């Protein structure tokens, strides 16, 4: 290329220099130019071919203008100078393969000819490529010849006298040397390399005293060791450790955290085991665990679960208690809502929602009496005095006091006299339009009817058999009423009552009165007529209450299936809360003489507990669950509706929603 | 007043003062997070869980004392020095001051970890107790490809390989190996050193994959510590058997990648545990060596000489004395288990084919007293040796068979080791699928499921002990076991059954009573009704109810005890029951799978 350009320029020169001559540049032309321009001559003298005139006569115009043409200008005789036919690539390749010199050949597009470079020219090109001068003879680093002569000229460039510092040793250099000397002397700089200490030594001597060999710093919590591999991690596990395809597929449906990390596989031989692909990852995870995971000491309970169970006295020692169903009293056609046992233990009364009250003989199961009272019975209660066989029945707005007709003639006389109301007695303690209670003779079965202003839920007798209480849950300030049978009078002891009353009971020995509202149990002194205590059950809704015959302990059943035992001497909080039933507790009951108590619930079961109360105040009551009594069937979502103990025997009566009364004996 | 109100002028106290979050700790120490990490790893400081997380739940908390412990460590200053030094080098390079840079490079500040190790593990036993992770990591890195230009320096990998071989040589020669297990992840080994059980995992000797999802900085920091720890532990162990620690090895064997063998030979020559037959091997080897090998002989003997000179203090009395010593004192030192392990493969010669994992078997077989050679250069005896008892091969078909030896798959060795007895070799013969390989780390009794092969091994062991041939079917001991189990079960249920029976009797009585009553009502004569009462319907119903009753009674008993528990205990109890049930479900799953597999096998 260099050559073409050169010749190109030369051509221009020629054209401009002698435009009128119009003769091709020949060898003769070179010589006059050499004379003109020394520089040109020097440049052009290196190759003899340069003197050859260009074939091309189109001048210095872009070649592409002639791309379409077959010629490249005209010769002196005016004929077209034809382009040579271009060789195609295969031809040029073949030519190259045949000719060993072909690498030196260059196609000159301007002149449309192939030029072969000489050895010298290639040498020049190489030198240029290396960045050296093209000519070998040129010495770029020739010695400098100072042709200006200094001597005897009389006028140096600077005439200043030489400064002193040129003649004395440098102070700073001296200081530096001194410093280095100091460094050597002090051993700061060492020329010999420090000795390589052996990397390991005996670190733990046997005779190191133990006091010194304590770990410093905070208490060290060693990292838990990695889990040791089980059978399933084997390269060749038993067949049973390999999950089936369905199981593997089902892993995909799991959450990612739950998915098993490792799926066992089986290899027929050791040579077919591949490298474990996540070896590095697992090593890294372990590292992360070691330095990133907070460590705490966790106490792991490594005990037998049975050891958690409290040591309870054997059930055998706590006998007798009811265990099996001995008798069934059938006859009611609706759910039996309530039962009550006569104090002598011979008779049992039951009230049902079918509107009947029945009296049964306990021992035989014989139904003695059926009273059709016409309305669903809420509650029945025997008079606690054996000589007054009166039954109180609550139904709707009424409370009936009926003569059961039991006992001898003398007693009957007395009862009849008691139950005789000449004219209706109406309490008018309030100025309301409806009287709170009115005592009306009940002609149907010969007794007294106490007509309340609203529906009555429970009726409970005082231990002396003269007083009884009724609860009117929706009665607001007249919810709990006290009645005296002998005087046929009623009165409302509470001017104001907090909460919705559920049940009211008398203390078995003292003049104390318990009112169970939905949240609390309020304990009143009847003599002083004031609140003594408020027991907080902490349950959602109290459904029933029962007082221990000793009078200091109370059990409360709730609608969430919890039973609370209160020790009144201890605190107003429950001494023990037992979560027993999955459904509502309908009733709880203490036995009068045996240390037994029971609860019954809508889940068709009744629990019997041993509840021993000690006279020693320092000893807490002992509560042992004894037996779960089943047998009732559920109807309408209700199970066992009432339970009562026999007054003398360790027997339990349960009344079910399946209209059966059952007697459980020991 | 806000919840954590602190009056002005009053110091922080409680958890707020005692714990510090990670970011605050880094600020407190005035370091970068990466150097904090490094410090924590080297010093063994870990986050702790405060009772109350004052700064928030999703933060990492360090104890203030731990951080103070870090702050007082000279290492933190050293790290700062290194950082400053690196900057100096960078600066010199930027100024094209090569001399200065080179000088600085040669003077890089270094730190040593021996102080840290002693601080973290004041006694040798402490170090052994924490050696599991260390060994696993070092073995893992020893198996990584030593490729120039990778993220891990080749020297590190070589040093890991060396350390792991040194450890293995010690374990093997002192017969401390107890359990082995080939898993998919690699081979697990368990050794017992000074009463500490040390378990580690070596990857399979295959090309390991370098993944991108790990942070090599963290791993290399751990490795740095572990290398140092293992070095010191090895030193102590070698010291305890009177060996110089960095062992000088036969470079010829080292070059042949039989470093472990070289090491164990080194240990054997100086420990004195070299069995007699090694001399025999040497002689046999010399017989077999061809001319080419004879040339290398002088070099080797020179090396041996050098070794011996090196070992002079330990080796002075000569081989005979040592043999005597070995016979007297060493035997007494060893506990029963070590003795058992030592003589498991005694007087047995093994030969390893090309395709079996050589390093592992070279480690395991000598650890249990066997003599082993392999296919390849530098092996002590060749395949043609007549004394070879077992040849370990892992190929579908073995071409040339020597009748004097048995050809077995490698699993046999591992199973023998775990069972501590020589198992029959037929199931492990060439080309067969070996019996399942079971983990020795599982307590089958606790797990509740005993694989079939474990039973077989147990029976074999029992028979070997009593010299009674095992019964092919159900062994007598098995029967006893089941009886024992039954007895236990009976004790549990006795009460329930007793109660149940009583109930049944009573209910019978009750029924009878009721029937009689009914009859009375109906006015039927008692004697007339007698034949009717034996009707079968009643009995069937009775049978049906008893089974349900039994469950009911058990449940009732459960409920009763649950009621009397406190809430906390009840919750724990329930959690325990859940875990128990989960375990049982696992076992049931295994049993079911087993049953299915058996059925399939039968149909085929």
UniProtKB/TrEMBL annotation, chain A:
Region (Disordered): 1-64
Gene3D superfamilies: YVTN repeat-like/Quinoprotein amine dehydrogenase
A GO cellular component entry from the record: PeBoW complex
Main location: nucleus
GO terms assigned for molecular function: ribonucleoprotein complex binding
Start and stop residues of the WD repeats: 329-370
Keywords assigned: Nucleus, Repeat, Ribosome biogenesis, rRNA processing, WD repeat
Compartment(s): Nucleus, Nucleolus; Nucleus, Nucleoplasm
SMART domains to which the protein is assigned, alphabetical: BOP1NT, WD40
InterPro entries: BOP1/Erb1, BOP1_N_dom, WD40/YVTN_repeat-like_dom_sf, WD40_repeat_CS, WD40_repeat_dom_sf, WD40_rpt
Keyword Zinc listed: no
Domain BOP1 N-terminal: 66-322
Biased segments, Basic and acidic residues type: 20-43
Keyword Repeat: yes
A single GO BP: maturation of LSU-rRNA from tricistronic rRNA transcript (SSU-rRNA, 5.8S rRNA, LSU-rRNA)
Residues that span the membrane, as ranges: none
Domain of life: Eukaryota
Similarity-based family: Belongs to the WD repeat BOP1/ERB1 family.
Function according to Swiss-Prot or TrEMBL: Required for maturation of ribosomal RNAs and formation of the large ribosomal subunit.
UniProt protein name: Ribosome biogenesis protein BOP1 homolog
Automatic annotation (TrEMBL), chain B:
Listed GO CC annotations: nucleoplasm; PeBoW complex; preribosome, large subunit precursor
Residue spans of biased composition, Basic and acidic residues class: 290-302, 584-604
Keywords, comma-separated and alphabetical: Nucleus, Ribosome biogenesis, rRNA processing
UniProt biased composition (Polar residues): 278-289
Domain BRCT: 340-430
Keyword Nucleus: yes
Keyword rRNA processing: yes
Region (Disordered): 278-302, 527-546, 583-604
Gene Ontology terms: biological process: maturation of 5.8S rRNA from tricistronic rRNA transcript (SSU-rRNA, 5.8S rRNA, LSU-rRNA); maturation of LSU-rRNA from tricistronic rRNA transcript (SSU-rRNA, 5.8S rRNA, LSU-rRNA)
Signal sequence interval, chain numbering: none
GO MF entries: ribonucleoprotein complex binding; RNA binding
Localisation: Nucleus, Nucleolus; Nucleus, Nucleoplasm
PANTHER family (alphabetical): PESCADILLO - RELATED, PESCADILLO HOMOLOG
Function as written in the Swiss-Prot or TrEMBL entry: Required for maturation of ribosomal RNAs and formation of the large ribosomal subunit.
HAMAP family per UniProt: Pescadillo
Family: Belongs to the pescadillo family.
Identification of the protein by name: Pescadillo homolog
Gene name as annotated: LOC120267477
